[in-house]
Amino acid sequence: MYDLVIIGAGVTGYSAAMYSARLELEVAVIGDLEGGTITLTDDVSNYPGFSQLTGKELAENLKAHALDYPAYFETGTVQDLFKCKENCFYVVTDKKTYLARSVLVATGMKERELEVPGHEKLKNKGVSYCALCDGPLFKNKVSAVVGGSDSAAKEALLLAKYSDKVYLIYRKEKIRPEPVNAKRIANEPKIEVITKTNITEIMGDDRVTGVKLDRPHNGSDTLELDGVFVAIGGIPMSGLAKKVGVEVNKKGEIIIDRSSRTNVAGVFAAGDVVDTEFKQAITGVAEGVHAAYQAYRYVNENEFVFTCQQDE
Amino acid sequence: MYDLVIIGAGVTGYSAAMYSARLELEVAVIGDLEGGTITLTDDVSNYPGFSQLTGKELAENLKAHALDYPAYFETGTVQDLFKCKENCFYVVTDKKTYLARSVLVATGMKERELEVPGHEKLKNKGVSYCALCDGPLFKNKVSAVVGGSDSAAKEALLLAKYSDKVYLIYRKEKIRPEPVNAKRIANEPKIEVITKTNITEIMGDDRVTGVKLDRPHNGSDTLELDGVFVAIGGIPMSGLAKKVGVEVNKKGEIIIDRSSRTNVAGVFAAGDVVDTEFKQAITGVAEGVHAAYQAYRYVNENEFVFTCQQDE
Lengths: 312, 312
Known about the structure:
Shape of chain A: elongated
Number of domains of chain A: 2
Oligomer: homodimer
Distance between the termini of chain A: 21 Å
CATH topology of the largest domain in chain A: FAD/NAD(P)-binding domain
């Protein structure tokens, strides 16, 4: 029986683990991607206190901090979550089943996929979701990033270190990176921004050879290139939470209050999976801290029944 | 004319400065205590990412990070804040007057004073509010901490490094430090916890010589000692904010929403001065980040009139 099971081993889960273990909760952290999606980012320069480091380094710092205190870590996937008739939860992984007094959902987002012909066939054959992971494969080649967010801009900037030419293709009028990255894009001659344009097909048999566009660029509705990096946002991983009655908004994000509580007693949520307007590493980390404290209060203020049966 | 003037140079103000300067706001930070009240704490081991450092070191890291970006810093006291007829603000220090499109109130708390006879006369003559600052003066002496919070416990633990004996005097049934500090207190033979007891007078002429108690301890209603450290919580510094119509709760804390907005357009608030339930360095820092982003949106989405007259 754990006091708190944290689903998700990203920076949010780590900070919640550190705080809840300090508060002497019996805590377990389960995640399939150690460090979470920030480990796919090469440049983090906005986590207050660290001028500049990689996402992997930031996650490692936070994990090391959590390991100062006793917490159980499992690298694995949560396959099921259900509520008991009494006020406890079962968290099921492929390795074991956890009985928990409270649960923190810190499952983050998964990348939204580009749903065009050719995408499925050419995934990992030129289609990628991570410039940090796959950028070096496109050295001296031509690549494109799809998207207009700050993340998309950062992917393009990173790719420009390898590729000879990088297209940044965005469906709307104007890309919207942070000003600091907008300047970097403007000063990088390898990057060409193409706006008001959608990719309609990814071409190639064994490898990506080009893309089709819905608006001609330099007189042609195809672009020859070797790699397509997709950065069109994420889908909140709120499925498990919904299963136990947690409310989500229209985007599928878990609705929380300022203390990271959901509408279900004993279920907390934090990080990229919640309905926070401005989602950053630092804001997710702080939400994890609020969740740890509220779990501590919840566990100490309630009576728990140990013989637990599934409530269906 | 600044886009954002941040009142308060603690960790909250620094993180807001870093983020807002990254977002290319013209930002000024004004504070009288560089680094804020956390600089009075010797042991910070719960800011996610840093296993253990002093409050001063944490503040210096955050300030150094802010200085990576252009921001104007003034060490000074804000003496007045007022709203213009148009949608802008004047922030007045003893050195200059700032015209601001938006304002972040990150003024924190000041220590609550122990209102008993002898307190005023003996302040800095044995009565202190900072064990880190004054602890070494009580080497091989007897001292007391008044209060029952985690902060009070940490003051007592720090004093035990210097004093031969430390009383921790608390009016309620049970002190309520974090579990990790409760253990340390229990394992420190120099510390004696006295509960259900109030100090009614601080005795001494030139220096503290003892305190009177409202309940006898070991048969006596006085305790002989050399130093009294007061740690009975803080008073939110919300006076300036109230002056421009910002709503506060019964405790005097500024009421904010999840994006650090107050009820007054263009006025944001974050950190120890707001109505967050669980106030930590990390939660204040994240609130500062939310405030920076909302100020960025506010400044970019509104028209501002430059000729500004006081609205009284």
